[in-house]
Amino acid sequence: MSDAIQLINVSREGRTGVIELARPSVFNCLSMEVHAAILAALKGFEADTSISALLICAEGKNFCTGAELGEVKEKRRSEAEIDAFLRRGHETLQALEESRLPVVCAVQGLCLAGGMELLLACDVAFAAQTAKFGDQHAQFGLVPGWGASQRLPRLIGLRRAMDLFMSVRWIEAEKAEQWGLVNYVLPEGDLRSEALAYCAKLATRNSVGLAMMKRLAIEGLDMPLADALEFEIRNVNAPLRSDAVTEGLAAFEEKRQPNFG
């Protein structure tokens, strides 16, 4: 973990695990080592049953401006090295997307290219009013390689995604919210506290139910609707018979907040 601490800050706020990108001098660029550090921290939080949510954030003025281009240049020496570079990013971002934990992202300043790919792997996104979003790959002859080509069209629609890919323009936080790229836009001074408050609310929910809803939504997205609905039926039967639902229904009848432990 000593190497990871140099790249990210790992902490907890109550029942929320916090992973903070910690290289503001290089715009919090993502390298293979940074991805490995994020993945290791995620696995640690997932193994801790007292953790109910995860916050991804960043030090400094900017969230993340993408991959470390020096490393990209170095890895281009061989097909195998580029493949390993791409797969490392995919492994980390897919682990975030598939985590049992709700993953919340808080973005300030620039969120570009690989930084936006990190954002896309999160479940809920907060942005400062001054945040800017874009994909710069085409400007430098590159192609998104950590999932943006697939996740962005699914999230904001094909035409909007193609515009961002091809024009390499930046959009401001208000537009990002209108398009569904982020959920909440806040003054920068409130960004972290509001994101943490949101995560704290998740601690009052049934964690098994949240994990199931996340799985149903993500996996069902690419199924034909009839198959997805059957997938829901098969997977919701057992949770509806759980102790958590017994507690939730009792709380409703007794007009109190449920206690899921």
Automatic annotation (TrEMBL):
It comes from the Bacteria. Transmembrane segments: none annotated. InterPro entries: ClpP/crotonase-like_dom_sf, Enoyl-CoA_hydra/iso, Enoyl-CoA_hydra_C. GO terms for molecular function: catalytic activity. Signal peptide: none annotated. Belongs to the enoyl-CoA hydratase/isomerase family. This is Enoyl-CoA hydratase/isomerase family protein. It comes from Oryzicola mucosus.
